[in-house]
Amino acid sequence: MQTLEKRGDVKDLALADAGKSRIEWAASFMPVLAQIRDRFEKTKPLAGVRIGACLHVTTETANLMLALKAGGAEIALCASNPLSTQDDVAAALCAHYEIPTYAIKGEDEGTYYSHIESVIASKPHMSMDDGCDLVTTIYTKHNALLKEMIGGCEETTTGVIRLHAMEKDGVLPYPVIAVNDALTKHMFDNRYGTGQSTLDGVVRATNVLIAGSTVVVVGYGWCGRGVASRAKGLGAHVVVTEIDPRKALEAAMDGFQVLPMSEAAKTGDVFITVTGNFHVIRKEHFEVMKDGAIVCNSGHFNDELDLDALEALSTGKTAPREFVESYELRNGKTVRVLGQGRLINLAAGEGHPAAVMDMSFANQAMAAAHLAQNYKTLEKKVYSVPDHIDEEVAQLKLAAFGIAIDTPTPEQVKYMASWSEGT
């Protein structure tokens, strides 16, 4: 662990050159964010704004930080998950880009929260969260800072759920833009990003053959859709479990077998949770799993799995591979948990491809600028990304792909806005 005064807390600054190279590589796949960065360099929409960011410290996040800095922001960054940090990237942000970064892959819970405190010590005007830990820590422990805070952005489904709960309870401390709700975020990042990176994480951790196996996908939101389709593409028999009848019906019509978890637990070879909910795989499910079943999570928090119950069912555990813990159950079977039940795509892999994070982080950057310019007119509510931002991100991405689309004629515009045309 290496610390530089006012520069952050990272594993090893000697990794900085390798991290810089990988940040630049990711940038080559993020043309939308690059255009926004160029625009920010000229217009400085975040001049004088201190941003406290609690995000996965990856190459893609680094490019977001550089865009925000180009826009005039002062930034302090920490990890939003103990296993999601890329240590070389954290080192590069400190050493090459002078962005204070507090993140070490594998940090314990105490260090994780001390790093959040380090970001809070920068006295941010704006929060940028992935999971809502920064917002809740500020609200519960640093209420005095709120008078200077103008708003925040939230990246992921789990965090948006927590923010809506805060709003419902009347304790949301400032306006927050739910970046996750942008169509150019959840339709692409959640589906294509999570789908690819989750299976990549599973394979990196285990080298298991997906073809011919039964993969149980727990939850059929946008992330679940992506994981299920990618597992099917690799040749798996896919089973979906759901609590929402509409999503269960959609999964069935998409060609997947739909079962309650009590039944799916008996048949699965690989289990992947993507619900944003609590203890969706529990004691009664672990007890009936096949010998050697693989269990992992691609939702934000590891409490989607009841790991305490699994510990109680076990006589011991071994670590046969770097990201695998094999629990020896009293019934003679083993259950293999990947990445300590944390985000498997970041624990064992590199997370989403840069090309899809390009859109998500373009939304983040533009949402931050929107907040800085409009916070005085916003209430303490959770807001969706404004449509004009979402649409512009899509247009820029299409242009980057070299794809042209039609423009409606004046007659079509009039028709779409009229009620008088009939049969």
From TrEMBL:
Pathway: Amino-acid biosynthesis; L-homocysteine biosynthesis; L-homocysteine from S-adenosyl-L-homocysteine: step 1/1. It comes from Vulcanimicrobium alpinum. May play a key role in the regulation of the intracellular concentration of adenosylhomocysteine. This is Adenosylhomocysteinase. Substrate binds at residues 58, 130, 155, 185, 189. PANTHER family: ADENOSYLHOMOCYSTEINASE (PTHR23420:SF0). Belongs to the adenosylhomocysteinase family. It catalyses: S-adenosyl-L-homocysteine + H2O = L-homocysteine + adenosine. GO terms for biological process: L-homocysteine biosynthetic process; one-carbon metabolic process; S-adenosylmethionine cycle. NAD(+) binds at residues 156-158, 190, 219-226, 242, 277, 298-300, 345, 352. Binds 1 NAD(+) per subunit. Residues 190-351 form the S-adenosyl-L-homocysteine hydrolase NAD binding domain. It is found in: Cytoplasm. GO terms for molecular function: adenosylhomocysteinase activity. Its cofactor is NAD(+). GO terms for cellular component: cytosol. NCBIfam families: ahcY, PRK05476.2-3.
